[in-house]
Amino acid sequence: MSWHTELLLSLVLLSSVPSEAKNVLLLLADDGGFEMGAYRNRIVQTPFLDALAKESLIFNNAYASVSSCSPSRASILTGMPEHQNGQYGLHNGVHNFNSLPKVHSISSVLGKAGIRTGLIGKKHVGPDETYKFDYERTEEQYPINQVGRNITQIKLFVREFLQQTKSTSNEPFFLMVSFHDPHRCGHVTPQYGSFCERWGSGEEGMGLIPDWHPIYYVWDEIDLPYYVPDTQPARYDLAAQYTTISRLDQGVGLVLKELRDAGLEDDTLVVYTSDNGPPMPAARTNLYDPGMAEPMFIRSPEKGVRRNEVTYSMTSHLDLVPTILEWFNLTHPQPTTLTGRSLLPLLFQEPSNQPDDAVFASQSFHEITMAYPMRAIRTKRYKLIHNLNYQLPFPIDQDFYVSPTFQDILNRTLANQPVPWYKTLRTYYHRPEWELYDLKMDPTESRNLFGKSSMKDTFLQLSERLQKWLEVTKDPFRCAPDGVLQDTGAYLNIPTCLPLGH
């Protein structure tokens, strides 16, 4: 990069920082995908998300750095991939994963700077001292459905937080509203439906959420995404998910109305995204695009920003911490640990010359029994996935296993019946060490090009970039599966991969 380019970028960066930055509102879906009109889904009705998108910059190349609930939330809140922050898997119950002690979350950094922090809804990360918020209304104090799906209760919590904030000299705030929709619940409370679509609906015995007006969908009129089998159970499953999308959407509308009624809309940066992809085959817990490609909108109150426009810039959840810090004119206590970049310049203009940029992903666990570490690099054209435990079958998580979609795939496979799906269960379970896809020619990631002579240079370039990122972020798995990492004591204290002689 020339000094002329660096100067231009510096000027754009300075112009993108508001002189009196005030607040940030982060809206997070739970296992949400592109089920909304803003991303051209013509069936699901999401008027509030669509309205927010029209006031925002819409990201068409936004990606999670991991496709699992707790690790993704930790990455969003720390700006570091799961292998760097230590939240390798789920936080709750027997899984018991926590971030490393010296990790700095955005809530702790902002809190020390005098910015009030709040979290409403699903927390699902630990330890508490790392992810401490001034105001918390989460599953640690209340039933998860009450704080994550009861949009009337969420509205009241948001109102309480904003009122308390205004009563304390109107200090700047960071508020994260972490919805539990459209996460599955059939494995825990099947009486409420696969996605808790009956909970709070007003049906007999289901309770009533006063502000939710359920929308129901006809299963045989849904446009299926390519990664979902075209079967009746899968269509019923997706219709149930769409109903809970309506609850999420109406909840977003309620939260934004509270912000507006409090007179804080013109002082607040609003971000909407999801932690990872939907709980469907090839999606959540996978590093295929359905698992890591995410919706994202950013609405800025600043003058001159782009609204109802699309950016195709490659974007990662790891960019959110640098973005929030720059919004508040703050620096990270350990800036060298961050590999993301601020997105604020994008709110004003698209880069005129976009290089072959890339995003990276890292997954080690989901549940404690799901030891299947994967590392990936994705550019606009190519995706390279490294499956470190490729000799094991790909693991299936509990709530997806009992879902109608997976049970139908499993039963048809066991009965030697055809499955109208773009994969077979055998190929889904058994994956090669390396997967290389040309996303321009193969957007469904169906044809693995690894090993083809014509792709040798592409593989070497991508694998070198991926390895460099793993080294920069100090991935403890970076020598696997063919070596052991020797990081202290020998070799002048230079981390070294020692061969295993496989």
Explain what this protein looks like in three dimensions.
Keywords: Glycoprotein, Hydrolase, Signal. This is Sulfatase N-terminal domain-containing protein. Residues 22-329 form the Sulfatase N-terminal domain. It holds the Pfam family Sulfatase. The chain is of the alpha/beta class. It folds into two domains: 23-352, 3-Layer(aba) Sandwich (Alkaline Phosphatase, subunit A); 360-477, 2-Layer Sandwich (Arylsulfatase, C-terminal domain). Helices cover 28% and strands 15% of the residues. The chain has helices at 3-15, 47-54, 69-78, 82-85, 106-112, 144-148, 151-167, 232-261, 289-292, 320-327, 398-401, 404-414, 425-429, 456-472, and strands at 23-29, 57-59, 62-63, 116-121, 135-138, 173-178, 268-274, 293-294, 296-299, 309-311, 315-316, 358-363, 374-379, 382-387, 434-438, 483-486, 496-499. The strands form four sheets. It has an eight-stranded mixed β-sheet with strand order 5-4-6-1-7-9-2-10, sandwiched between helices. Strand 13 and strand 14 form a beta hairpin. Helix 7 packs parallel to helix 8 and helix 8 (232-261) packs antiparallel against helix 12. The longest helix is centred in the middle third of the chain and has 30 residues, at 232-261. 50% of the residues are buried. Residues 1-16 have low confidence and may be disordered.
